[in-house]
Amino acid sequence: MSRLDSFIARLSAQRELLNWAIGWVAGREGLILEVGLGNGRTYDHLRAGLGADRIYAFDRANNANPLSIPPAGRLVLGEFGDSLQAFAARHPGAAVLVHSDVGLGDPEANARQVTQMSGWLPPLLGRGALLLSDQKLTHPDLLLQPVPVPIPSDRYFVYLKA
């Protein structure tokens, strides 16, 4: 598969899964967290479906399109280990949905980050909350679920918080 085809497949999978998650979140209380703002495409999609008032976005630096930047106070910048753990301390278990798209191009760095994210993300989630991740995470409180939409296997992972 070419890199272009892979990119298109990733974006299509994101859209399908986020559309499903927007419906799943409707009527549920809690924060929505976008971990890995990037250029802001998925944040913008979540904002269009759920509104901006309960979405927080996290990234190391702001590289988003100016039209896809969260409002003041809703963009948390810094190293994920610091920002996610500090947010979890202030808002333990407050998220009903976390979308994490933080994969790295370097396989070794990615493996380290997967291990770290496996520990940093669960404290953000309330019981029964949904976590969508571009990486396969391992934590006893994260219950891997079947992917509810037709996307290529191992493209995205769906978890519920025990």
Structure commentary:
The protein is an alpha/beta fold and 162 residues long. The chain has one domain: Vaccinia Virus protein VP39 (Rossmann fold, 3-Layer(aba) Sandwich). 36% of the residues lie in helices and 23% in strands. The chain is built from four helices and seven strands. It has a seven-stranded mixed beta sheet with strand order 3-2-1-4-5-7-6, with helices on both faces. Helix 1 packs parallel to helix 2 (41-50). The longest helix has 23 residues, at 3-25. The protein is globular, with a radius of gyration of 15 Å. The model has no long low-confidence stretch (mean pLDDT 93).
Number of strands: 7
Our count of helices gives 4
CATH class: Alpha Beta
Low-confidence stretches: none
Counting helices, strands and paired strands, the structural category is alpha/beta
Q: Overall 3D geometry?
A: globular
Q: Calculate the terminal CA-CA distance, rounded to whole Å.
A: 36 Å
Tell me the series of helices and strands, N- to C-terminal: HEHEEHEHEEE
CATH homologous superfamily placement: Vaccinia Virus protein VP39
CATH architecture: 3-Layer(aba) Sandwich
* Number of separate domains: 1
Query: How much helix is in the residues?
Result: 25-40%
What would you call the quaternary organization? single chain
